[in-house]
């Protein structure tokens, strides 16, 4: 279980994440939603120890992320951030193989190679495995990075806006692949999403943030309500129930 | 295996370089039943050390360039444009002026400390620039290098050391003799270190968060890379002088076909760097035989043309 206690991030006088205490559910998909500047990505980065906290504690399976050796955490938790626009010229397979590094320490075994091939296949990258990252489209590259964090084979997978730069078809494919990963590989996936309806349709749990705080959390049907979303986004959003999903219509 | 072919070509080139020079050395005179004593001496005292120095410099500076590019995540830097070489020169001058009796090893260490500080300052400045465009990074390096350079020039002018400073800046292999280049073997050790840590550098090249996610210490990798780059630069500056474009050109060329996985790229950069400097040195020795043009000058001319070509054909990747 991942537990954040009084986590705060301060830049000078500005509070980006304000004293957040939170338990992330085990299993399934949890999506963090909220307007720009709500502190979603910052919270995710601090929870995954790639950004230092101003104050507070984060425990992953009871291990304090500040004091636990990096290599131990790297086998429990994987994070994919949105700063991969500046990439090295690695092939897809090389990148995904680096996901095994916490296990293999640079000497991949036969078992590691199987993990790599499975992750590549799972993300539909078989035909692109030998291509360099800088020769791929943004969406293909995004899938390659997701394949890498899946290959890291951690219980917790944290993704910052995994749909960024993906078109509709690839967004749907990505969410389905993540759903399968959560269901069949028993992973706990936590992600920051901007698209409310993707979050609603594919998540087991939603966390709505505003002004650096967790405003609401609960199952999609508890969050996908006009009064709740009004408080989060300052916007009148009507909710339709379509084919069992809660869909927000906020375009007019 | 393509790398093997490249190594064979390099060895042939190296053997060929032994035969070029004013005094006549040929395989015939060396391996005849009564070998030519003088030719043998020229070979052992001058030609072989020169060949080895050329290849060691090519290998280590090429790999140092590759590592520096991964540390700053930018393809357009090399030790000669990141303040490393300039600060090493400054350190060498400080050592020459303040402690002239210091042995070469001591001077090298002073130069290395300066190079370390200069390169670290470069990285520190880059950290302070929040939104760094690709082209800002080499510009910062050039500005920083020029600042070091002007300090060096100012004092060198006053101390009548301009000639020495020029020698540090322009790699010239014509003075390499047995007993005067052996320090360069240390650079081979450093290159091997870089190869052992290759995966770490590749990962660091993907950024700090990426590195932390995989459970590695970003700052330790940075420190190791900084140490390798600074030591290599200092040793090259102290022994033969800087060779421009090498650390920029060779890693970029290699990246085109092997990619940036350091485990795969380092052997190619090592062989390619040695070959590049060897070719430049040979060219410098034959274009106006029996006189010589410094290898670094040739490298500057050849390198700038090749690099322009690289820039123009890959302009899409600059942005």
Blueprint (SSEs and pairs):
The complex is a heterodimer of chains A (252) and B (319).
Chain A: E1 2-11, E2 14-24, E3 28-33, H1 40-47, E4 55-60, E5 63-64, H2 70-73, E6 77-80, H3 92-98, H4 101-104, H5 110-122, H6 138-151, E7 156-160, H7 168-184, E8 188-192, H8 196-202, E9 205-210, E10 213-218, H9 220-223, H10 226-233, E11 238-242, E12 245-249
Parallel strand pairs in A: 3-8, 3-9, 6-7, 7-8
Antiparallel strand pairs in A: 1-2, 1-4, 4-5, 9-10, 11-12
Helix pairs in contact in A: 3-5, 3-6, 5-6
Chain B: H1 2-17, H2 27-31, H3 37-72, H4 84-98, H5 104-128, H6 136-159, H7 162-169, H8 185-196, H9 198-204, H10 208-213, H11 218-239, H12 246-258, H13 262-286, H14 295-313
Task: Write up this protein.
Chain B: Its main location: membrane. Chain B: Pfam families: FecCD (PF01032). Chain B: The chain crosses the membrane at residues 51-72, 84-102, 108-126, 133-157, 183-203, 224-245, 265-284, 291-312. The complex is a heterodimer of chains A (252) and B (319). Chain A has 252 residues and is an alpha/beta fold. Helix content of chain A is 34%, strand content 28%. Chain A has helices at 40-47, 70-73, 92-98, 101-104, 110-122, 138-151, 168-184, 196-202, 220-223, 226-233; strands at residues 2-11, 14-24, 28-33, 55-60, 63-64, 77-80, 156-160, 188-192, 205-210, 213-218, 238-242, 245-249. Chain A is globular and about 55 Å long. Chain B has one domain: ABC transporter involved in vitamin B12 uptake, BtuC. Chain B has helices at residues 2-17, 27-31, 37-72, 84-98, 104-128, 136-159, 162-169, 185-196, 198-204, 208-213, 218-239, 246-258, 262-286, 295-313. In chain B, helix 13 (262-286) crosses helix 14 (295-313). The model of chain B has no long low-confidence stretch (mean pLDDT 90). The A-B interface holds A 45, 48-51, 69-75, 78-81, 83-84, 86-91, 94, 98-99, 101-102, 106, 132, 134, 149, 152 and B 70, 73, 199, 202-203, 205-210, 212-217, 255, 259-261, 317.
